[in-house]
Design brief:
The model has no long low-confidence stretch (mean pLDDT 89). The chain has a five-stranded antiparallel beta sheet with strand order 6-5-4-1-7, with no helix packed on it. It has a two-stranded antiparallel ribbon with strand order 2-3. It has 70 residues and is mainly beta. The N and C termini lie close together (12 Å). The chain contains no helices and seven strands. The protein has a single domain, classed as SH3 type barrels. The relative contact order is 0.32. Strand 5 and strand 6 form a beta hairpin.
Length: 70
């Protein structure tokens, strides 16, 4: 996996920071987006893959939570 790859969230991941759904649980499973950064030294609880799922919405995910879309 590398920056620029299209990926899909394949596991149940719930976030509370999605715009228009703040402070409410939002399920990311099934959403797709683009890898915009891979952090070499994890700084956010071992979630090194930053994926932009929608404009102005990105999430830090683990490698086993996403799959590359061909």
């Amino acid at each position: 996996m590398k920056v620029g790859d299209r990926v899909r969230v394949i596991k149940s991941v719930i976030v509370y920071h999605k715009p228009k759904h703040k402070k409410e649980p939002f399920q990311l499973q099934g959403m797709s987006g683009e890898v915009i950064n891979i952090i070499g030294k994890p700084i956010t609880a071992n979630l090194p893959i930053v994926v932009e799922l929608e404009p102005k919405f990105s999430a830090h995910l683990k490698e086993d939570e996403v799959e590359v879309i061909t």
